[in-house]
Specification:
Elements: H1 2-8, H2 15-31, H3 35-62, H4 70-76
Helix pairs in contact: 2-3
Length: 79
């Protein structure tokens, strides 16, 4: 599943930059020893990543690829 998740990001424009920003915010909170904020930010990051992947999946399905080839195409092809 992690491999699929990583490969989905190449289909989402700007997702790498956004994820990096989100990770930096989490690290800043950890460096400030604010565990509560770090947890909130990490949970938001996970939800945002999930949302980006779901949106990409829906766009992929709507382009007529169909569910049958979805995982194969995401894992083996370039955007």
């Amino acid at each position: 599943m992690l491999l699929i998740h990583r490969n989905l990001h190449k289909w989402v424009t700007g997702s790498g930059k956004q994820a990096l920003k989100e990770h930096h915010r989490v690290l800043d909170a950890l460096e400030s020893r604010d565990g509560e904020l770090a947890e909130i930010l990490m949970r938001r990051h996970i939800e945002a990543a999930k949302s980006r992947i779901v949106q990409t999946h829906e766009k992929f399905i709507n382009k007529g690829k169909g569910r049958k080839n979805l995982l194969k195409d995401f894992v083996s092809s370039d955007p």
